[in-house]
Amino acid sequence: MSKQEQAFPMEGDGLSPHDFVVGIGASADDLEALHLLLDAVPLPSRTAFVLVQSSVSSARLTVDMLSGLSRLPVFEVRSGTRVLPDAVYLVPAGKVMRFEKGLLRTFSTDVRFHPRPLDTLLQSLAAERGSRAAGVVLSAGEGDGALGIRSLREGGGLVFAWGNWAAADTGWTGKVDAVLPPREIAGTLCQLGRAHGADEEPPSLAATEQGLRELFERIKRQSGIDFFSYKRNTVLRRLERRMAMNEFRELTDYLAYIEGNREETEALGRDLLIGVTQFFRDPEAFHILQNESVPELFARLGDRKELRVWVACCSTGEEAYSVAMVLKHYRDEHRPDCAIKIFATDIDKGAIDFASRGCYSESSVQHVPEPFFHKYLIQGEAGSYQVAKEIRRLILFAPHNLIQDPPFRQMDLITCRNMLIYLQAETRDRVLQLFPGVLNEGGYLVLGPSESPGVVTRMFDPVDRRWSVYRRRGGGLHTAGSGAGSAADEPLLPFRLGSLPSLASLQKRRQPDELYAALVEEQFPPALVVDENNEVVHLTGEVTPYLSLAKGRPSWNLYKLMDAQLAVAVATALQAARRDARPISRSLRLNGRPPGQMIRLTVRPLSAKNRTLAGLMLVLFEETANAALAPAVSLPHDGADSRRVAGLERELMEAEERLQEAIVELEASHEELQVTNEELLTANEELQSMNEELLAVNSEHQQKIRELTELNNDMTNFLVSTRIGTVFLDRQLCIRRFTPAITAEIPMLETDRGRPISHLSHNFKYTHLVRDAKKVLGTLVPIEREIQSRTGKWYSMRIQPYRKADQSVDGIVLTFVDITELKSANEELLQLSYAVEQSPGMMVIADLEGRIAYVNPQFTKVTGYSSEEAIGRCLRGLNEWGTSTRPPGEVWLSVLHGQPWEGELESRRKDETVFWEKVRLLPIQDPKGKPMQVLKVSEDITAQKTTEELLRKSEMLSAVGQLAAGIAHEIRNPLTALKGFTKLIASGMNSSNYVTIMDGELNRIEHIVSELLVLAKPQALDFQRKPIVPILQDVIMLLDTQAILSNVEIRTDFAEAVPQVLCVENQLKQVFINILKNALEAIPEGGTVDVGVKVEGDGAVRIHFRDSGVGIPAGKLARLGEPFYSTKDKGTGLGLMVSYKIIETHKGTIRYTSEEGKGTTVAITLPGLP
């Protein structure tokens, strides 16, 4: 039994929560690196290694190859293999495995993409093991590994690579945590594996908060990113990982290490920025967005022509592009007049730069739904995919700090997914308070599945709680400050009195029971509770007489809810109560109240012992009677007392007057402050708008710079890779730049830049290069020449001015195009052209529309048209298509589809004489079989046709004899009947029926004779230009009554702008009546007859009659038009024969097609007049 079979681990205790699992991507070319990596693993390591084979090498790793590289046992994986520590597991080549509950299982992949074994393994490790997983990339298949690395980083795992692979462009932005030699990778992995082991204590982070502050300050100074607001657990977990990787256990030691170490500080900052995203992440959420939210958003736009979207914390842009695809797909179908503007922002400038390029690996786009994938993604080189420009134009990517920077305003949709979960509660609440103020009424907020609106929940209606999709409620608008951390943030409170939250809910304490609430409502005077910002947080009793809502934006600031007189008194009392920390009571006489009514105002702080009530003030309103108006009470007093009372009353009146004056002044000041405040708010909004525009302009400028850099790189690569030799000279004819292709003929080095071109030798048999260059520089007229090299090659040389953007000339450009093969091909074409020119047959080349592009001399000789006269004319217009049984348009289409056509055509020379030609039409196709032109090869067969006509007349004489026999037979039958009835009458047998029958037989003979006269006596015809549609309309009107009686509906479909035809109107009517009557008679139980007219591509007029009758059997269809043959019981067949004759004299065609049981179609084609 082999070692593999003996120790194959299908069962066992498996991995403990502290064991490490490492996914490795490698190929057979990495044997040396694998040996260094695995050989450096100490035992016991408490680490399992799962090795995935990449496709970069055709060779395959085997268990035998790996067994000698390490002391660890090596197993080949089968589906269901249990993973144990201190072992290596080799996934067979071509297999894709997932890690699930300690087992490795086979995984099926999307058929649209190449298998991604490393991605699949690393993603499953991240999901199952989190921070106890790691990845090592020694090599990877094209595009494989990017998604897996992202997933590992999101889950807290580490990723390592060695230099050879890390130097390659892998198509993803996030860098690995470290690029190390294989032995150092093994040491670091074991260090991590032993860290936080089952028997070890976690590293000491004494004085953590102070150390973190110092650490965050250093990162902020270097990158501008503040991590103070991030959750400590998240930060500590990732910090701990960096410390373990660098072999530090004390935070103070690590702080000393990163002091001045810019690379480690940047690496830590990138690690703390959890930039994990993907296309259409959480498909269910996008399903809701696409089918519910987006249609409603566009419907709410009304007359607005722009939908505004903010994708906050967009990372590398996948989510922004996903949202853009959904919006554009709906917009194009339902609101094409509407513009879409998407602001995609993130704090990571590197991620923003990557997102703006819109280029992703194959593994990154595998979650894009099928319709969007083919419509909005363009496959590029090396398995990459480029987002289409029509999507990229909708999005403006810009750096933005959601916590500190001003928000974007007037948004219809905001997505901020899976970012808030990493923030501390206070910061998260501040960020959430931004969204209602910048989101339009009815706008949508989309958060991550584990997130909710929290403190602003009351401002939103849930659309789907599972996927955190919310709709902004109307009213109660929240005013967004300058940022989430603005000191001017206002608490969010509803503006309806009935919906005010209780003090208990705001301070998270228990609700009073129903009894207590009832007692307060019955016995307690009208009162309200305000916080330290003078915002109303609770109401009780009837406070309507004292409070009212002002116009404009609702506010729950106490002073904005009161009139000026009461607001001043309450403000004074609140200030005194807060200052002295004691209750303050005052009696007030308010304007507009009855003379005897007073208000007793009491303000007292709530219990200072309860921390949840700290800073809250209780304001009570009690109505009392004025003592001066109460019934007099007799009390003993003397004169001094009376004078004292009178003096006090005067002082009180003076005090009231001064108080009233002060109130008036305060009201005026209050109004001025309100105006100033409104002006400041307006200015703030303008500044916010300007800031947004400047941000957008700045981003656009950065994008332009990137595009110019890319364009410069493209031009450089184009000049290097092109096979066209190019030399750029300045005004002194000194070399400025050249391409490698020219160095074969003009030996140049990079050091020759700046040298005069005249100082260099060349291989051209051309001595006037410098002279012509000077001539072009002086005249600004380009010069083109064909020159030959001494090597035998031919070049097309062009010398032209070098023009700058302002059209000024700043030198000369010389281009040398190798035309050696072209010259050889031209010689071959010249020989072929001689053969065509001297051919005894006529040759014509036409384009796909039939316009003549070339005629040979024989065509000119036969037709009389010169080459100039023929080129540009329609080829089909020169022929009459006399003997063709197929319409010319149909023939032409068949040729364009690759089917040659051969036939005889009646054509006209320039002098209008007719000649016959035998024609073969052939398609001229490109190498892919696509038609480019049509070749017509023909010969004059007029003499042959004359001979055939003589023969035909001879045959016609024979046919006349046959026709006479047929006539005799047809007439003999009714004559025999007449003779019989005559004898019966002569014998005395008389009946009225005999006369009727005899009359019918005589009519039959008369009809046959009339039809024969038409055939036998050609009449002088008067052809005139006539429109075809009125003729058809007359015929339809004539037979409409018969159609109604037969329960048949005649339907018409006449094209517009139908050309006139040259015809004898009565003859065409005879044909149309015959065909239409036959159609009506073919529908015994009612149906339809369609009559239509359309114009063919060559200008011919096509008339069709299509009935829904019984149809004609295929055997009988071929005999139609023969004399005395008819499908009707009493028909003679002569009517159809006459119709064929009339259409023939009109140079047209008539065709019958029929399907038994479904109906018959008659198609007549007549030449249209220009």
Explain this structure to me?
The chain is built from 33 helices and 42 strands. The protein is of the alpha/beta class and 1170 residues long. It has 8 domains: 3-200, Rossmann fold (3-Layer(aba) Sandwich); 203-274, no CATH class; 283-472, Rossmann fold; 497-627, PAS domain (Beta-Lactamase, 2-Layer Sandwich); 722-823, Beta-Lactamase; 839-940, PAS domain (Beta-Lactamase, 2-Layer Sandwich), CATH 3.30.450.20; 947-1016, Helix Hairpins, CATH 1.10.287; 1024-1166, Heat Shock Protein 90 (2-Layer Sandwich), CATH 3.30.565.10. The strands form 9 sheets. Strands 3-5-2-1-8-9-10 form a 7-stranded parallel beta sheet, sandwiched between helices.
Low-confidence stretches: 1-12, 167-174, 196-207, 476-482, 485-513, 627-637
What order do the strands of the largest sheet run in, or round the barrel if closed?
3-5-2-1-8-9-10
Shape: extended
* Secondary structure category: alpha/beta
The biggest beta sheet, please? Answer: 7 strands, parallel
- Named at the architecture level, the CATH assignment of the largest domain is 3-Layer(aba) Sandwich
What portion of residues is helical? 25-40%
The total beta strand count reads: 42
Mind telling me the CATH class of the largest domain?
Answer: Alpha Beta
Cα radius of gyration in angstroms: 49 Å
Question: What is the count of structural domains?
Answer: 8
Total count of helical runs of at least 4 residues? 33
What is the distance, rounded to the nearest whole angstrom, between the alpha carbons of the first and last residues?
94 Å
- Going by CATH, the homologous superfamily of the largest domain would be Methylesterase CheB, C-terminal domain
Please report which band the strand proportion falls in: under 5%, 5-15%, 15-25%, 25-35%, 35-45% or over 45%.
15-25%
What name does CATH use for the topology of the largest domain?
Answer: Rossmann fold
Question: Quick check: average pLDDT?
Answer: 78
